[in-house]
């Protein structure tokens, strides 16, 4: 009963929860634009978001409406239980042109509408105002350009006729700008543009305002005294003035300028200078008040009192020990002002005074090398010449010849030639006896001439020599003196005693010799089985290595190698020899063999004699007195005894001479005969024992 009650309670709770759960389904969301998706400026526009939603009976849902511009820019959010929501755009402007959409959110559900385009046409014409229409050059005015009510990213542009004056971007519907205009009449206007992303829309020009700018009378007047044409050494004066009305204005500044250089502030002063030839040119007076500048200029011409002196040296190429003459002179001078003897000269070397004259003679040497200049002076005017660098030529010295590294016959090596002294460039020629092999030119004192050569014999090295030459006579060097390394020839290995006559206990000498090669020479000996044996470095062309008291294991193949500083290893042919037994061992073996043979012979002789003794004993035992027995019985006994003796002897013979099985053996057989009265002994004869056994 209790179980049924609990089950009923659970079912009731479930049904109650099922009744309380509310279900929502967003079927569709759409956006409507009224009165139209394309309107004129100033129209009131409404955006209506409509939602089609299904929900549980008896529920009262609350919706969230979100309006968007330009895809994701959120405009406004509303929370309501209505099935639609409106967003108002009052007095629409071109800046409202964009793409719009809306979205509906219920609990965790969200659904967006389709995207709608809204286009607003018609930019209003901007209005331009200025704070003044008449002003003096250098003064500024404030201009204001406005487009009331326009929204978005606006770019305002101020213009003077067709010339653009100022541009500025803002999100405000007006902008102010302070500006200065050049003298004359200005025609000011403005316009603005709006950026709609993919397109830019430009407004019409604003109203036109004329502005008059009066000139500021501060243009300077420049005067030169005594004249704009002068001669070097003359003094001239510059004077700059402006209109008397502005002369004492505290903001006025006047300057004397030549090129990029400001010479003097001329507001209250004049400027004087003693001119030189390079002072010729354009001079300007510049007056400044605020941002206004005025200019006046004059050209000054200065005639040379005398020309720049010219420095010369008597010869272009002078060797040490030869005389040189340095001369300084001017090519022209103002004869109406000075005479030639009034010009004084000075000659310098490395900025040190040599002589106060126009000529300087000296013998060329290392001390006379350097930078020469000269100076000419007259009427307080001083001019310096261009500098000349003089360096006395040096005869080339006797060239030195050398090699770098070892000289190996048959391999290329380098010969270097170098002279310690001599003016560059120096030409080096490598010669072999009287034959020119090669030449090269060196342009640095620290460089050597390099030649790649090869010698075939050591004596050939002394045939090389160098000749050096510059602009002077050539110099011959000494012949090359250098050590020459001859690579080793193929070694010859000799064995003493000769390979066929080597016995145990002998001392075997391995002699490795070469036909050619420069010492020191290293000889190495090798055995094919035990590898390296010995290495020695000697100053001769051969070396002997001794194997003392050789044994049978010294038998084998031997060879040697030779090498020297040429770093080339040469190997001999191989020699094989065998170590035979010592003489005493051979004699001992022979003696032992002979003794063994003698013992065998003695053994067989003793065996033979033993057999002979047995046969004689058997014969003696077989002889008995006469009896009445028949001949057959006597014969049978004799044969039986003989068989016994023969079998025993044959067995002994087979065990001792197994190697002589094929030999025929003989034994003595007694033939029974009738007694001969004349004889009392038996008669014996030899027959093959084998035949006896067959019987």
Give a quick summary of the entry.
It is found in: Cell membrane. Helix content is 13%, strand content 45%.
Can you put this structure into words, describing what you see?
InterPro entries: Ig-like_dom, Ig-like_dom_sf, Ig-like_fold, Ig_Fc_receptor, Ig_sub, Ig_sub2. It comes from Triplophysa tibetana. The chain is mainly beta. Helices cover 13% and strands 45% of the residues. Strands 2, 4, 5, 7, 8 and 9 form a 6-stranded mixed beta sheet that branches. Strands 11, 13, 14, 16, 17 and 18 form a 6-stranded mixed beta sheet that branches. A hairpin with a 3-residue loop joins β4 (63-69) and β5 (73-80). α2 packs antiparallel against α3. The radius of gyration is 70 Å and the shape is flat.
Number of strands: 53
3D shape: flat
Helix content: 10-25%
- What's the alpha carbon Rg, rounded to whole Å? 70 Å
Number of helices: 4
Q: Give the N-terminus to C-terminus distance in angstroms.
A: 136 Å
Tally of discrete structural domains: 7
Major β-sheet, in short? 6 strands, mixed
**Mean pLDDT across residues:** 83
Q: Kindly estimate the percentage of residues that lie in beta strands according to DSSP.
A: over 45%
Q: Given the helix and strand composition, which structural class is it?
A: mainly beta
Runs in which pLDDT lies below 50 for 5 or more consecutive residues are: 12-20, 624-695
